[in-house]
Amino acid sequence: MKNKGLLIVLSGPSGAGKGTLCKELLNRENFWLSVSATTRTPRKGEVPGKSYYYLSKDEFKNRILNDDFLEYAEVYGNFYGTPKSSVIERLENGEDVILEIDIQGALKVKDNYPEGVFIFILPPSMEELKNRIIGRGSETAESLVTRFKAAYREINYVSKYNYAVINDTIDEAVIKIESIIAAERCRVDRIKDKILNSKEDLIHEQFND
Amino acid sequence: MKNKGLLIVLSGPSGAGKGTLCKELLNRENFWLSVSATTRTPRKGEVPGKSYYYLSKDEFKNRILNDDFLEYAEVYGNFYGTPKSSVIERLENGEDVILEIDIQGALKVKDNYPEGVFIFILPPSMEELKNRIIGRGSETAESLVTRFKAAYREINYVSKYNYAVINDTIDEAVIKIESIIAAERCRVDRIKDKILNSKEDLIHEQFND
């Protein structure tokens, strides 16, 4: 009897650094990164099936009707979503799947797949978040305040998650995420049936020696 | 605001090797090992306050009446128990406390302190458990079967625990336990208040620059 894989959802406010952590995790561990579907046109350099699955609006809407998204959203007239069937197939096959996603998306995934491991990535401090946003060099003073207020509100959603990891240094944060994954693999509610079944097998062997 | 320490409860059937794992963990990490109280007389080489706290039966019974045990049991006319106040004091002080205990004791601790981390140590297989029991050289064929049957029944209690760790090699099992502890320190239900409070502090700093 094979254990199901884990669906690991990395999420948090923008600027917390979840993308960097996700990349580093994929370098170090054998996870399958869930690829989103979108109706927007491919940009230069993007690879179909790796950057995104590119679907027509009709295809996307059909999939919505077929309940084939763990979550989806419409942003500026285009749809974006996490295809359910490909994720579930990997999980059933015992592979761990990682999903890097914003907070709204993560909460929808949680409704559809509550047994996922929901990890909220926090900036080390609001000070550091400000520095990171400034470092991008693309923000006016006004949009800086707007983004702070958004981050401020968004951090309240931490209570909907299983774990919170402060992204202080990448290495320490990745080690914490790896520990969370190792611990989740030992959770009794995930492996109980396997233990009790293998016990039955083994005890019969013992007494029939 | 300080985080509370974790109460880590290592438990499982005898022969699973929880004692060895506990010793190795104490070598590697800065935990405080909970010391039991007993009414039996000290044996040669035992150190009061380290091996056990030695209490008279009256003292022990008074402590029972004062609800000062996380668990206690009477075995062959002597009492054994885990003093509550000393454990709680360490936890409140932010120290992690480790408790190595049999299954009946662990379940009582869980009733009194459900926020503990309950880890069930499993032998790698019933075959290996048999070898370990035989290795002790103190079992007759009859008592071997009795101990197997006990282990067989006891393994069903795994479902009352949070985690199960198979004690295959000591090093791997200890790494799993360390991962569990690291993950539990990131659990949102343990650190939520601290995150939300520090967010308030930090956001005020930011906007008053």
Automatic annotation (TrEMBL), chains A, B:
| Residue stretches making up the Guanylate kinase-like domain | 5-182
Q: What are the UniProt keywords, alphabetically?
A: ATP-binding, Cytoplasm, Kinase, Nucleotide-binding, Transferase
Q: Any signal peptide, and if so, which residues?
A: none
Keyword Acetylation annotated: no
UniProt-annotated binding residues for ATP: G12, P13, S14, G15, A16, G17, K18, G19
Where would you say this protein principally sits, based on its record?
A: cytoplasm
Reactions catalysed, semicolon-separated, are:
GMP + ATP = GDP + ADP
Origin, by domain of life?
Answer: Bacteria
Q: Which GO terms describe its cellular component?
A: cytosol
Repeat as UniProt keyword: no
SUPFAM superfamilies on file: P-loop containing nucleoside triphosphate hydrolases
Coiled-coil portions: none
> Pfam families per the record?
Guanylate_kin
Question: Molecular function (GO) terms listed?
Answer: ATP binding; GMP kinase activity
What Enzyme Commission number(s) apply to this enzyme? 2.7.4.8
UniProt-listed SMART domains: GuKc (SM00072)
**Subcellular localization, per the record?**
Cytoplasm
Recorded family membership: Belongs to the guanylate kinase family.
HAMAP family to which the protein is assigned, alphabetical: Guanylate_kinase
The UniProt function text for this chain reads: Essential for recycling GMP and indirectly, cGMP.
Put simply, this protein is called Guanylate kinase
Encoding gene, per UniProt annotation: gmk
